[in-house]
């Protein structure tokens, strides 16, 4: 059994040797380069565009503007259910007559080289009529604010009202009200985006290489927009330098580059540069909360009353309002609170559109809720873990229906023993162990947070498993991979069932040419959904192999077993036949089985191949997790040093502990970035002021504390055969909350620690004057 | 704009290419010599994905011009890899899960390659300093530092 | 992010470089380590028509001692100076300063002269040179000018270097027997500072302060010298209380930078803390020298 084995990844060798093939590493004969000319204005009317000088430049092939795309081409649609109708806010691939954020595509320049494209871009004359820019959602919804879209700037105003919040607030022994702000920041994978599209006009075939979490979905959208058959487009995902939620969209370029290739009948490559990326990739988070939490005299939380405002940016993209939607659906977290009310406002501003970033909505909600709960504990004089302990959903109340929904799926915490995991986490860290409060003038604090994280969302997933005549096994998966280790984990699942070593199992994924349907990769779904489909397919292969051997050798199936890549008769020490041999027998047209008279349609002669599609569980599967950290704070400068960081979670079952741990630690690093460093800031006139890696700071090795993990496999979800829960988002999801609580504990103060990121200046402002 | 004929050694082989002065060395290596293992994560010197070794010193491939390579000895990740399999550093990175998406990996390999070429028994602090200019968005660095510590131990054991 | 086109020359001698600089006029720019210039080229924030590469001029990258003067060629790599035992022994503050400049790959290419010429207000080297009262040797076709450090850095990205001139050498008086420290606060180690402090301390035989220098960087367009503070320390035995008292004399009005993410008020709070740390650390090191 290799499921659960801690084995190094099979895909690593090519990356380590520099043999990974990312989109910028691909080239084609006669290929030309594209450049997207973007708006320098946050809000303006485009009066005219004159590209004549640019077209005269040697090496320039074409300049496409909105006038060149078909007049009936609509905007890029939103592909998931949203709260209310967001269609008035969708983005066209190229700005039509108005731009709404700095970075909005206005034209595509195609030339012999990227450098010439950039030279040409300087020659395109655009006559803009600047309009006032709105960078604050609060300003945007003031009555006299300039409308960014005709439908107004308030895109959504919705919420939930469960139980009786008013009553609970009235009768509460304690209430705490706090405002929280989670800054705009985003995934920022190390590889920028890029596409290489080529068009074979004679055959009407379009081939597109480029990263996306969902190749099939994007291919289908592209087919619709280009008026092509889905089967005439092949979308292939090469190696991908990270995604973290930001690569799932259908971005404007996903249309523009194939469109240019088709128009020019030449391979066109677009490799985004980092500065472009800052304005073009979805931003995320950017949410403010006002939280009221109420409790009775026994420390039982009786209500959450929440107001949420999310800045959506200039347009609604394909992920709609997922961030506020998840935040609103999951706000109550792991606590048995029945009185819950939230009002959510999603607001348009003149900033880059937003979408998902790892743990979308959850990082935000966990921060606000868990900080508020610490305040409540302080107010009650109750130990912080104890307050949580009294309120966790007990195991016997599983599955827990929160009563909310997100993207039209009910929020159901399917399984888990939260109190048990909570106690193990506290014990594992030594939460109660005393510690020095001061060291060389620095103050030490400890903080924790608890949360529930969804995974395995999505309607379906599919795989095809093939064994060739030589016994080589190939998995064709509809998922995609941006560094999560699917090539290893998927092979492990198959290996454990058909007993072929992992190294002999190839994984092909992210290619619409290899499997008809695929769901893709998001919300930590691959292990859950793809894993189950693969489990079924592997069993299918096994059954097929045994049945075929049984027929060939006339031995009852019950006496046969599959191991070491061959079929054996029980008790014999020679195999009967290898899997390759079985595959040979099952090859269509094999005369051995082409028995007359009428077996033309040989139903079993479709190779040693099994395709399996499985349906997802509507609510996905939810993992409970606890984060704990010790932090030192310098009360004179606001500097902080995270001394140690701890993550505990119950994931049902680990497919590969090495990869699980890697996901958790890497996730914590991203969480720390969002907690201390990263921020996409805009000047009042709508310019992005953190547009390079020199000012958008991501953690480097010095920013990382030692991270330890406690991964439990206590309660297996029943919704999938493998009993797994996704782990991809557990790492970042609780970091801001745990760190904020630890700093507050160190300073014995809470003021000022509600706004992210915790810059030294903000932390210093939270230091009580007496301590300073 | 004048084109320059530039000759240098890369991974032990002499090469001669015609370049525009404005081309960075990384672009020349990738685009003209097909050495796509050297990655570009920012093109402004911060991420370190393009780190290569020039005349024995680590350098940002994106902050050198191709024309400046005249006469230089350059080592890229392709040259730092054995013909088959993995180097000691690469093997350790795999073992300790020091990579996920692999995009920063060639730069990390080169930064560590340089570290171990001048210091076979670095301390944890020295390891951190050596990779302090290399950003990795995936791993949180822990696996990378652990891998480097293991390399140091193994090199010690070999001696 | 590809640079606008330019012509490129790689002179072999300083004279050749100066000839080129004169003949190509104001559209020409020199490139040293390229660690600041190439990003600006890539972003098209700098668009010289001609680039004159100083990397092939050996005479510009020597460090040597003549009597009590250390001559550092402008093209000396930051990594080279950092690893130099001469620098460590004779100019310890430069050593500690360079530890904070970028990362190994940027230091391997980046030069001392480039850093000084670039004059980023948050850069460490201008503060170090101000603390040493170093002399900058500028060369042009017209000859040589020697500019003291306090007249060299004029403002944000602005120095006394005139068109046609190259910073050729930095001359510093050796200071072997003193303690030095450079302490800074940056949001991410290896990045530019929010405030930095450079201190030099030498002690009299009785352990009291004989001489001290204090520079605070990254808080104004040019690094700031605080002689009032160090004068007050003279003749005193160092202690936290003594240093704090002396730092009361720091004129915080001289701090200027006020950004949305790092306010003037905040810099005024951390500047003295950095100064205190630098002074105490330099003192400790000076004490160590005496033992
Ligand atoms: C990731 C990263 C982090 C960094 N962190 C820091 C840091 O913490 N602290 C810090 O101080 N710096 C830092 N830097 C910048 C530093 O590395 C540069 O080395 C320095 O600013 C410029 O030196 P250079 O030799 O590379 O000069 P170049 O980039 O080649 O030139 C810079 C400017 O100076 C001019 N110039 C160069 N040499 C001369 C000369 N001899 N005479 C006249 N003009 C000349 C050039 O024309 C140009 O305008 C960092 C850079 C990077 C990429
Ligand atoms: S690409 Fe060179 S440092 Fe980022
Ligand atoms: S492995 Fe993805 S950036 Fe390092």
UniProtKB/TrEMBL annotation, chain A:
Residues 17-132 form the Aldehyde oxidase/xanthine dehydrogenase a/b hammerhead domain. InterPro entries: Ald_Oxase/Xan_DH_a/b, Ald_Oxase/Xan_DH_a/b_sf, Ald_Oxase/xanthine_DH-like, AldOxase/xan_DH_MoCoBD1, AldOxase/xan_DH_MoCoBD2, AldOxase/xan_DH_Mopterin-bd_sf. Keywords: Molybdenum, Oxidoreductase. It comes from Nitratireductor aestuarii. One of its GO terms (molecular function) is iron ion binding. The keyword Oxidoreductase applies. Transmembrane segments: none annotated. This is Dehydrogenase.
Automatic annotation (TrEMBL), chain B:
Keywords: 2Fe-2S, Iron, Iron-sulfur, Metal-binding, Oxidoreductase. It holds the Pfam family Fer2_2. Residues 4-80 form the 2Fe-2S ferredoxin-type domain. GO terms for molecular function: 2 iron, 2 sulfur cluster binding; metal ion binding; oxidoreductase activity. It comes from the Bacteria. This is (2Fe-2S)-binding protein. It comes from Nitratireductor aestuarii. The lineage of its organism: Bacteria, Pseudomonadati, Pseudomonadota, Alphaproteobacteria, Hyphomicrobiales.
From TrEMBL, chain C:
It comes from the Bacteria. SMART domains: CO_deh_flav_C. Keywords: FAD, Flavoprotein, Oxidoreductase. This is Molybdopterin dehydrogenase. The keyword Glycosyltransferase does not apply. PANTHER family: XANTHINE DEHYDROGENASE SUBUNIT C-RELATED. The lineage of its organism: Bacteria, Pseudomonadati, Pseudomonadota, Alphaproteobacteria, Hyphomicrobiales. Residues 1-177 form the FAD-binding PCMH-type domain. It holds the Pfam family FAD_binding_5. It comes from Nitratireductor aestuarii. GO terms for molecular function: FAD binding; oxidoreductase activity.
């Amino acid at each position: 059994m290799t499921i659960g084995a801690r084995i190094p990844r099979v895909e690593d060798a090519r990356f380590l040797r520099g043999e990974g093939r990312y989109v910028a590493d691909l080239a084609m004969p006669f290929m030309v380069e594209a450049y997207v000319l973007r708006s320098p204005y946050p809000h303006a009317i485009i009066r005219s565009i004159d590209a004549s000088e640019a077209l005269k430049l040697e090496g320039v092939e074409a300049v496409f503007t909105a006038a060149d795309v078909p007049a009936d081409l609509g905007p890029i649609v939103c592909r998931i259910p949203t709260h209310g109708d967001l269609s008035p806010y969708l983005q066209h691939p190229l700005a039509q007559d108005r731009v709404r954020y700095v970075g909005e595509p206005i034209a595509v320049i195609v030339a012999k080289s990227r450098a010439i494209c950039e030279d040409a871009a300087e020659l395109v004359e655009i006559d803009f009529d600047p309009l006032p820019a709105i960078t604050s959602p609060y300003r945007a919804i003031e009555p006299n604010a300039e409308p960014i879209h005709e439908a107004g700037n308030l895109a959504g105003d919705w919420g939930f009202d469960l139980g009786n919040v008013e009553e609970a607030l009235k009768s509460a022994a304690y209430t705490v009200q706090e405002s929280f702000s989670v800054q705009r920041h985003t995934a920022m994978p190390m590889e920028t985006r890029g596409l290489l599209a080529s068009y074979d006009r004679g055959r009407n075939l379009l081939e597109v290489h480029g990263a996306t979490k969902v190749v099939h979905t994007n291919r289908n959208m592209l087919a619709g927009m280009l008026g092509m058959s889905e089967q005439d487009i092949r979308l292939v995902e090469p190696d991908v330098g990270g995604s973290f939620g930001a690569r799932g969209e259908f971005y404007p370029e996903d249309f523009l580059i194939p469109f240019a290739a088709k128009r020019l009948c030449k391979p066109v490559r677009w490799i985004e540069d980092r500065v472009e990326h800052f304005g073009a990739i979805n931003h995320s988070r950017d949410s403010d909360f006002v939280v009221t939490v109420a409790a009775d005299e026994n420390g039982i939380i009786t209500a959450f009353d929440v107001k949420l405002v999310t800045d959506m940016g200039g347009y609604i993209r394909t992920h709609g309002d997922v961030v506020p939607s998840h935040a609103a659906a999951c706000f109550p977290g792991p606590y048995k609170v029945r009185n819950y009310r939230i009002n959510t406002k999603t607001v348009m501003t003149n900033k880059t559109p937003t979408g998902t970033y790892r743990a979308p909505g959850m990082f935000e909600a966990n921060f606000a809720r868990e900080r508020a709960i610490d305040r409540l504990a302080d107010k009650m004089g109750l130990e912080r873990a104890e307050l949580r302990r009294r309120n966790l959903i007990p195991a016997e109340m599983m599955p827990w229906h929160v009563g909310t929904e997100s993207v039209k799926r009910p929020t159901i915490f399917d399984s888990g023993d939260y109190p048990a995991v909570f106690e193990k986490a506290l014990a594992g860290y030594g939460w109660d162990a005393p510690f020095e409060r001061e060291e060389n003038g620095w103050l030490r604090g400890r903080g924790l947070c608890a949360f529930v994280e969804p995974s395995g969302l999505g309607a379906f997933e599919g795989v095809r498993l093939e064994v060739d005549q030589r016994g080589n096994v190939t998995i064709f998966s509809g998922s995609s991979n941006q560094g999560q280790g699917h090539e290893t984990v998927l092979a492990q699942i198959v290996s454990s069932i058909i007993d072929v070593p992992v190294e002999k199992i190839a994984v092909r994924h992210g290619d619409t040419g290899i499997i008809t349907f695929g769901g893709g990769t998001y919300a930590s779904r691959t292990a859950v959904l793809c894993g189950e489909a693969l489990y079924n397919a592997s069993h299918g292969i096994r059954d097929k192999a045994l049945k075929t051997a049984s027929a060939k050798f006339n031995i009852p199936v019950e006496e046969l077993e599959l191991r070491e890549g061959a079929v054996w008769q029980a008790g014999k020490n020679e195999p009967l036949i290898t899997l390759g041999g079985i595959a040979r027998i099952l090859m269509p047209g094999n005369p051995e089985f082409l028995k007359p008279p009428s077996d033309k349609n040989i139903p079993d002669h479709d190779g040693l191949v099994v395709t399996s599609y499985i349906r997802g569980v509507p609510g996905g599967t939810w993992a409970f997790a606890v984060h704990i950290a010790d932090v030192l704070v310098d009360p004179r400068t606001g500097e902080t040093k995270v001394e140690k960081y701890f993550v505990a979670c119950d994931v049902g079952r680990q497919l590969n502990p090495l990869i699980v741990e890697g996901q958790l630690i890497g996730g914590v690093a991203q969480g720390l970035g969002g907690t201390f460093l990263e921020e996409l800031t805009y000047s009042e006139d709508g310019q992005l002021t953190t547009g390079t890696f020199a000012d958008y700071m991501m953690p480097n090795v010095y920013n990382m504390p030692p991270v330890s993990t406690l991964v439990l496999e206590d309660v297996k979800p029943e919704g999938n055969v493998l009993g797994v829960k996704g782990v991809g988002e557990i790492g970042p999801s609780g970091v801001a909350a745990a760190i904020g609580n630890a700093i507050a504990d160190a300073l014995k103060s809470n003021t000022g620690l509600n706004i992210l990121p915790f810059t030294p200046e903000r932390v210093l402002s939270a230091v009580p004057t007496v301590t300073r | 704009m004048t084109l320059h004929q530039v000759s240098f050694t890369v991974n032990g082989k002499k090469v001669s290419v015609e370049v525009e002065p404005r081309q960075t060395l990384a672009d020349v290596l990738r685009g003209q010599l097909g050495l796509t293992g050297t990655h570009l994560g920012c093109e402004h010197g911060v991420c370190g994905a393009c780190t290569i070794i020039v005349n024995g010193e680590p350098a940002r491939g994106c902050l050198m011009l191709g024309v400046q390579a005249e006469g230089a000895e350059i080592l890229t990740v392709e040259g730092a890899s054995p013909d088959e399999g993995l180097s000691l550093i690469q093997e350790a990175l795999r073992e300790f899960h020091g990579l996920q998406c692999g995009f920063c990996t060639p730069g990390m390999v080169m930064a560590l390659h340089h570290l171990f070429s001048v210091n076979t028994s670095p301390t944890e602090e020295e390891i951190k300093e050596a990779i302090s200019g290399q950003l990795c968005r995936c791993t949180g660095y822990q696996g990378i530092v652990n891998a480097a510590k293991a390399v140091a131990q193994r090199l010690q054991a070999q001696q | 992010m590809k640079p606008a086109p330019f012509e490129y020359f790689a002179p072999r001698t300083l004279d050749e470089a100066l000839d080129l600089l004169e003949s190509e006029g104001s559209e020409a720019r020199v490139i040293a380590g390229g660690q600041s210039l190439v990003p600006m080229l890539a972003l098209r924030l700098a668009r010289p028509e001609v680039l004159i590469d100083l990397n092939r001029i050996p005479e510009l990258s020597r460090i040597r001692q003549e009597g009590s003067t250390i001559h550092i060629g402008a093209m000396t790599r930051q990594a080279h100076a950092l690893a130099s035992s001469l620098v460590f022994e004779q100019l310890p503050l430069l050593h500690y300063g360079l530890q904070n400049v970028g990362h190994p790959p940027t230091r391997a290419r980046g030069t001392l002269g480039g850093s000084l010429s670039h004059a980023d207000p948050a850069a460490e080297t201008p503060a170090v040179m101000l603390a040493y009262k170093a002399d900058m040797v500028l060369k042009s076709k017209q000859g040589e000018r020697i500019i003291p450090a306090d007249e060299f850095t004029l403002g944000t990205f602005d120095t006394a270097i005139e068109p046609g001139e190259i910073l050729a050498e930095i001359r510093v008086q050796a200071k072997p027997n003193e303690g030095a420290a450079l302490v800074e606060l940056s949001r991410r180690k290896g990045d530019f500072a929010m405030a930095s402090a450079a201190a030099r301390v030498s002690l009299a035989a009785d352990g009291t302060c004989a001489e001290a220098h204090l520079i605070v960087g990254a808080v104004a367009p040019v690094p700031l010298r605080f002689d009032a503070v160090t004068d007050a320390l003279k003749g005193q035995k160092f202690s936290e209380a003594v240093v704090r008292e002396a730092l009361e004399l720091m004129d915080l009005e001289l701090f200027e930078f006020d950004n949305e993410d790092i306010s003037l008020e905040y810099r005024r709070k951390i500047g003295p803390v950095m100064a205190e740390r630098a002074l105490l650390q330099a003192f400790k090191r000076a004490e160590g020298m005496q033992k």
